[in-house]
Amino acid sequence: MTTVAIPAWNVLGLLPPIDPDLPTSPDRSPYPVSLKDVVMRFSTSPERQSVLKGFLGYRAELHRLGLADGFQWIDGSFLEDVETIERRVPRDIDVVSFFHTPANVSVSDEDARLFDQAVAKDRFKVDAYFVELDQVTPRELTFWSAYWYSMWSHRRTQAWKGFLQIELAPTEDAEALAWLAQFEGTGEQS
Which end of the chain has less Cβ packing within 10 Å, N or C? Predict the structure, then answer.
């Protein structure tokens, strides 16, 4: 996947949903970005670092189950300048995982709890949703894509915003975790 740089927050403290200079360009939300860039950009406080650590742990659990073919859309106040907008820290990260299920996968009852939204939020600070690509028709996939795009393309205040897409494959996770370890406890990036 070709990635792009994560856009700067606009004057509202949000990722822009489109390039305002090229409003019809295909370069728009969800922006395909690298996992490492997400860590480098958003690990600016101990609270954000804690959310990222949970998110990387969540991804590690998905990978342990063999779920690595797909992508994730990430969003929520974690991608916003919520410290300025709402004068609070982000408490979690919103994630929709679009994935192909490997053949012969076996998930124990304990592992199945990973797909419980409350468990994922409590254990990993991830507000988790799933679209199992092998189980939906093209029509259903279109519906779910439009649903999540509609849900995540604006704040409750109706302000338009963008969000990010990262690969589900674990190719960058070790590097992202190493970067996060450098930032942890510092409250700022080097």
Answer: C
Q: Which amino acid is at 97?
A: S
Q: What does the DSSP assignment read for 50-78?
A: HHHHHHHHHHHHHHHTT--EEEEEEESGG
56 phi/psi in degrees, rounded to 5 = -65, -35
Helix axes 46-64, 173-183, angle to 10 degrees: 160
d(CA 7, CA 30): 11
pLDDT-derived band at 176 (thresholds 50, 70, 90) equals very high
Q: Which of 54, 43, 36 is nearest to 114 (CA)?
A: 54
Mean pLDDT of 117-139: 95
Taking alpha carbons only, the member of 190, 178, 183 closest to residue 45 is 183
pTM: predicted TM-score of the whole model, two decimal places: 0.92
The whole-angstrom separation of Cα 18 and Cα 23 is 6
What phi and psi, each to the nearest 5 degrees, are found at residue 112? -65, -25
CA distance 50 to 116: 20
User: What is the identity of the amino acid at 164?
Assistant: L
